[in-house]
Amino acid sequence: MVIDLHVHSDVSDGTRPPAEVMRRARGNGVDVVALTDHDTTAGWDAAAAALPDGLTLVPGVELSCLHEGRSLHMLGYLFDPADPVLAAELARIRDDRVIRARTMVDRLRGLGVDVTWERVRELARGEAVGRPHIAQAMLEAGAVASHDEAFTPDWIAEGGRAHVGRYALDPERAIALVRAAGGACVLAHPRAGRRGYAFPDELIERLAAAGLTGVETDHPDHAPDDRARLRGLAASLGLVVTGSSDDHGAPTGDRIGAETTDPAAYEALVAAARGPVSPLP
């Protein structure tokens, strides 16, 4: 069984509609896929309606969190999307994303970059406008030669000249909200140093004590040594280990299924969730 528990659609910062993401997942030989768009569940219904035969959908979300001023992402699975507290927090995060993105566009224009809010909004298409859409607009304007160049201190990296802070959840509160809504949480790519993450073991220990279910150990941005260390830490804390492609469509090479989760770990994750939504046939 091929299981990928972290993919995105154009409802957030992916480039493929949810229905196409499902078709591509099955075409890549995936049996179970989690749709985890940033801070929104808006793609769930379209994905579910387009499920090919033999593919199971795990409804999820990638929650924006902050730890000591640094971005941290939490994957929430199998929760009730109608839970009022969690839904309100997701809406607040999305609303702040718009304010933040508009301010970043203004700063870029002040730095001489010919980007417009209208173009960034067109690129976003879905609910969750974010830095990848700004990076694409910068690329189109000729200000940078690649997406990665946009994510530097010269531009929109954390602490960069055009960077703007945003509202996000404390990770322990995020875990509590997802659990209260019947779901389970997995810490996303905690050693993706290229992205500025690389969170310490002590934080993962604290999150485990707060109710974290698992850690995403096998991720395209994780080095082999990091994977081994994370697996050892997860074992010592009784956490599930997951593997995921973190596919965003064209920018990541349509890599759904490039990293996978062991079936036993998947079953443990499902067992940890108690919400009314189930991915099982």
Automatic annotation (TrEMBL):
Transmembrane segments: none annotated. Residues 242-261 are annotated as: Disordered. Residues 3-67 form the Polymerase/histidinol phosphatase N-terminal domain. SUPFAM superfamilies: PHP domain-like. Gene3D superfamilies: 1.10.150.650, Metal-dependent hydrolases. SMART domains: POLIIIAc. This is PHP domain-containing protein. It comes from Actinomadura sediminis.
